[in-house]
Amino acid sequence: MAQKDASVAELTKQFESSTAVLLTEYRGLTVAELKELRNTIRQDAQYAVVKNTLTKIAANNAGITELDDELKGPSAVAFVHGDPVAVAKGLRAFAKAHPLLVVKGGYFDGAALSPEEVGKLADLESREVLLAKVAGLLKASTSKAASLFQAPLSKTVRTVEALREKQETAA
């Protein structure tokens, strides 16, 4: 009983500290394949095979009740501590290569995710790419604004120069 309590406490801590949680069914995957999957998403998530009953209790302790229906059959959880998009992409890529891995759903930003929504999450670009695009837009906007501010000044200089040349030729 003490071991189960410790497991529930550890799982509860994982749920509370994760930015997202993605559930999978791993039935039929070998230990080597599970190790490969863990290595694939290691940078952003911890992937663990879990007992459904203990996981339900831990999720409920963390205030997450939306996963109860998904915790059936052999389940494994990706506790995301980094970029959820990168983990969703990693799971999708692994599932393409190993069709026995089935994404059952997840929990992100206070809401349950269906398998389709996890797929849409995987379709998004990573946080770094989005930040780079925003930075590029800001840089383009500031350089465009600078050229707009310089345009009247350079036009005025050209006009004055043209008038000066006209007066010199007239004289």
Automatic annotation (TrEMBL):
One of its GO terms (cellular component) is large ribosomal subunit. The keyword Ribosomal protein applies. GO terms for molecular function: large ribosomal subunit rRNA binding; structural constituent of ribosome. GO terms for biological process: translation. Keywords: Ribonucleoprotein, Ribosomal protein, RNA-binding, rRNA-binding. Pfam families: Ribosomal_L10. SUPFAM superfamilies: Ribosomal protein L10-like. InterPro entries: Ribosomal_uL10, Ribosomal_uL10-like_sf, Ribosomal_uL10_bac, Ribosomal_uL10_bac_type, Ribosomal_uL10_CS_bac. It comes from the Bacteria. Belongs to the universal ribosomal protein uL10 family. Part of the ribosomal stalk of the 50S ribosomal subunit. The N-terminus interacts with L11 and the large rRNA to form the base of the stalk. The C-terminus forms an elongated spine to which L12 dimers bind in a sequential fashion forming a multimeric L10(L12)X complex. Forms part of the ribosomal stalk, playing a central role in the interaction of the ribosome with GTP-bound translation factors. This is Large ribosomal subunit protein uL10. The gene is rplJ.
